[in-house]
Amino acid sequence: MKYAIPSWDIPSVPVAGTDFAFPVRHIYCVGRNYAEHAKEMGGDAAKEPPFFFTKPADAIVPVVPPAVADVQYPMATKNYHHEIELVVAIGGRGAGIAPERAEALIYGYAVGLDMTRRDLQSAMREIKRPWDIGKSFAQAAPIGPIHRVAEVGHPKRGRIGLEVNGTIRQQGDLSDMIWDVPHMLHFLSQYYELLPGDLVFTGTWDAFAGLAERHNGVWGGCWCTWFHLHPDPPERREIGNREFKRRLVEQGRTHAALVFDGDVAVAWAQ
Questions:
Q1: What is the DSSP letter of 177?
Q2: Average pLDDT over residues 246-260
Q3: What is the C-alpha to C-alpha distance for residues 199 and 179, in angstroms, rounded to an integer?
Q4: pLDDT classification of 209: cutoffs 50, 70, 90
Q5: Contact (CB, 8 A) for 116 and 81
Q6: Could you give all domains of the chain from N- to C-terminal order, each with its CATH number?
Q7: What 8-state DSSP symbol labels residue 53?
């Protein structure tokens, strides 16, 4: 096929432990799926079904160690927030899926960041306009490698969080989701046919925060490392996050690294 303009590479995410890449078709995100976040954003989690918004495929920023990634601070915002989330990678196809069948569509899981221009999102919410300007833009979805279901199963609980310069910014447990992954996919598939290559960011909880203000067009933010989905190792608590991160890097056990101007952060899913 001849294109009228130069084409571009399909956005993709590396698959851990393989030389495969997972091509990204579409990115869905779940809003207010943890009770505390719902309260912060003005919703009643006890009564509301999940709702969804989307990001473009070029929002993906895949990061695999030892490589690092540079991310541009986005235009028109002075309040740029992180939201650390479990990400579901869809490998099957289906619409109107029953919750008990939903896991059959899942290829794997990753940890990602739903980056948000919070000031723009809030302004749109106040005047009852769509959120796209606050959520949907290039490089708004940094993500670690995808871990296949065959290797990690379907995580139902486990700590997930984000630290910046040694300070915990977000911390929670997957079991705190209002809607678990099967029910989330059930609701989503009532509106969209889920297709191979789709990613679903499953929501965040309380204590999201801004990372940095704009400085010369570059975000002075964080260095993030995603770990395996496994129980919290005791040595991490004993020796501290920085030393634990250093040892993991030496052992080749880390799963992603993201650098913005040298500040240190650790994001994990366990």
A1: B
A2: 49
A3: 17
A4: low
A5: yes
A6: 13-269 (3.90.850.10)
A7: E
The letter for the amino acid at 222 is C
Residue 198 CA: distances (Å) to CA of 128, 134, 174, 241 = 28, 21, 21, 32
Q: Tokens 């495969």 appear where? A: 20
Residue 153: which region, alpha, beta or left (left: phi > 0; alpha: psi -120 to 50)?
A: left
Q: Is pLDDT at 242 greater than 50 in this prediction? A: yes
pLDDT digits (tens, 9 = 90+) for 83-126: 888 999 999 999 999 999 999 999 999 988 899 999 999 999 99
* DSSP labels, 191-210: TS-B-TTEEEE----S--EE
The alpha-helical segments, DSSP class H, found in the chain are: 35-40, 99-102, 118-126, 132-135, 149-152, 181-188, 234-239, 241-251
Q: Which of 74, 37, 44 is nearest to 171 (CA)?
A: 37
Residue 259's CB is within 10 A of a number of other CB atoms, namely 18
Select from 196, 161, 199, 176 the least CA-distant residue to 52.
199
37 Cβ contact list (under 8 Å, min separation 6): 203, 204, 205, 206, 208
| Residue indicated by tokens 């940094």 | 142
Q: How many residues are given for the chain?
A: 270
Instruction: Please determine, for residue 194, whether its predicted confidence score (pLDDT) is greater than 70.
Output: yes
172: amino acid identity, one letter: G
Buried b vs exposed e over 219-238: b needs ≥16 C-beta within 10 Å? bebbbbbbbbbeeeeeebee
Half-sphere exposure of 138 (CA within 13 A, CB side): 6
Which of 178, 213, 263, 226 lies closest to 63 in space, CA to CA?
Answer: 226
